[in-house]
Write a structure and sequence with these properties.
single chain; 240 residues; mainly alpha; 68% helix
Length: 240
């Protein structure tokens, strides 16, 4: 068993495995493009240019779903804007088309051991850095501060679902510390190959709770938390 890629290096992959790998490889390369390039983008002032290109793509796709008006990427604190859904759809569309072309052009390939290892490394570090970041903000009560006086005197029925979640998370420093510590531990374990599977399993449990919380309380980070949950599953699945 090759410990780096968690699959036998000399074993032929089945057709479904190869097709699934091609799709997710293309999709996550597209999804994580800003991750390795952020410092480069900032140093050369390319951030706005890249955002403008994504906005052009979103506006090209928008009429397919009868969405009117210009669709722009705005910094609002929400990761579930119309722009975000359209761009994720674009990633999936490119990945699907790319999978078809790749499958035809490389149909004699028996496995993708090296590319699989590269994908795992990319997902591990992307997931790890996000979990460590979120964990840090929870541990030090930066994400969920104690409810403000305005929140405490507000009628309960006037609270938004997200407001309720922020209130109960902010009220208990112990629970916020526990949630943040679990995220931090899961992220830290992902940084080392020998502990990556344990880190992925920890991350999956943590992110499943976060994703369900986002879905249940209408917290606008549903897309992002789902992707982190999927990454944890992909990292853990071979060893599971």
């Amino acid at each position: 068993m090759n410990s780096l890629i968690s699959v036998p290096a000399n074993k032929d992959w089945s057709l479904p495995q190869k097709v699934a790998f091609r799709f997710f490889f293309i999709y996550f390369i597209l999804y994580t493009i800003p991750f390795p390039l952020t410092a480069f983008e900032l140093s050369f002032g390319l951030d706005q240019w890249i955002v403008d290109q994504w906005s052009a793509i979103a506006n090209w796709i928008a009429p397919w779903f009868n969405i009117e008006g210009p669709v722009q990427s705005q910094v609002t604190g929400s990761g579930d804007k119309t722009f975000d859904f359209l761009i994720n759809f674009f990633f999936a569309l490119v990945a699907a088309l790319g999978t078809v072309v790749w499958s035809f052009a490389d149909r004699k390939r028996v496995s993708y051991a090296t590319l699989w290892a590269i994908l795992l490394i990319l997902l591990r570090y992307y997931l790890a850095l996000n979990l460590i970041s979120y964990g840090y903000y929870k541990i030090f009560k930066l994400q969920f501060p104690f409810p403000s006086l305005y929140r405490l005197v507000q009628p309960y029925g006037d609270s938004s679902p997200m407001g309720l979640a922020w209130t109960y998370m902010g009220y208990s420093a112990t629970y916020s510390w526990f949630a943040g510590t679990m995220e931090f531990i899961g992220g830290a374990l992902l940084l080392w190959r020998r502990t990556a599977t344990l880190g992925a399993l920890t991350a999956f449990g943590v992110m499943l709770n976060v994703f369900m919380m986002n879905m249940s309380f209408d917290i606008p980070v549903k897309l992002f938390s789902f992707h982190l949950l999927l990454m944890a599953l992909i990292i853990a699945l071979p060893d599971v």
